[in-house]
DNA sequence: CCTACCGATCGGTAGG
DNA sequence: CCTACCGATCGGTAGG
């Protein structure tokens, strides 16, 4: 796929595109084998370059991982912030539905988050912050729902937010192990219905 | 710690004990680094033997992993089967409480289950079967509760069982990333209270 | 239970 | 963007 025969249109013109190509290959490899298990030679081979060439675009293997996580960040942010209250819950189901269509992203987060629970892991802090952010957004949405009277009685926004995020992660493990065993989006929808007031 | 100076009491007398020592070291290493990331040399070094000696007790690295999983199986089975109906839900909270006291086991399952979502992984089938078993037991308990009228209206045993197991797994990821951020047992208890009829 | 060693693979450097 | 190469480490074998 890589290694076009057309050549560059100007000096450095292909660098940004090359970085992108590399990150997509790294994304694939890390999704399948994790960070520890994925090799730079494998990443390079898939796009037909020498593994040392990666080090002209990224200073180290962990820098490559940082690039992959940054790239996914851009893709995942939009949407969740805009909707208010119960709208966010519907968007969470939408996120799960999208994950179900793009297993690669689900694999990446699943394997990397588990690997990154080790304190020395290069993605450890990134995942810690990601959970603070994700749980925080969900909590804010639930608090907004509470103010609007959309939240079912007895639901604590802070603890419920942790459970919702935990449920999403846990469903993914079962789904990745056996994709026919579970319908993640349906499970999520059914669960979230229990959090809102019955009328919604 | 290992390598006693007393010598053996008889031929092969120490073999079973040695196997046990090796498995405990392997358990530690796989918990911290996963299967791919954990090395036989590390496992051996922790108990003061050469890594090749491991291969006198286990035929390969994946055989070592199988031994570790088998060992944990023995530890985890008791209890869950005995109690009936709502008693099982209380025991689930007890399991979570125990996980919270022994982080090593939690780490092992978390990192290995994510790694083992890859189809070629030596523990892939083990985890698939484990989920069938765990979800199945939980489902049976919920069905028993339904027959006794202990289950809240609208709760589907099969899908609820998948969610309960998913919740346990997901809580563990957040907990391992930041142990002060979450009280797994309390979260579990609070959630399960929502599954039973209010009187229980 | 050991030493000695195998071929393979790892991330990264040197130098062009 | 490459070749050539580094030292380290991997799982496993041979042979005692």
From TrEMBL, chains A, B:
Classification via SUPFAM superfamilies: Homeodomain-like (SSF46689), Tetracyclin repressor-like, C-terminal domain (SSF48498)
Segments of the chain annotated as binding DNA: 39-58
Keyword Plastid: no
Keyword terms of this UniProt record: DNA-binding, Repressor, Transcription, Transcription regulation
InterPro entries noted in UniProt: BetI_C (IPR039538), Homeodomain-like_sf (IPR009057), HTH-type_TetR-like_transc_reg (IPR050109), HTH_TetR (IPR001647), Tet_transcr_reg_TetR-rel_C_sf (IPR036271)
PANTHER family on file: HTH-TYPE TRANSCRIPTIONAL REGULATOR PKSA, HTH-TYPE TRANSCRIPTIONAL REGULATOR RUTR
Name recorded for this polypeptide: TetR/AcrR family transcriptional regulator
Source organism: Kineosporia corallincola
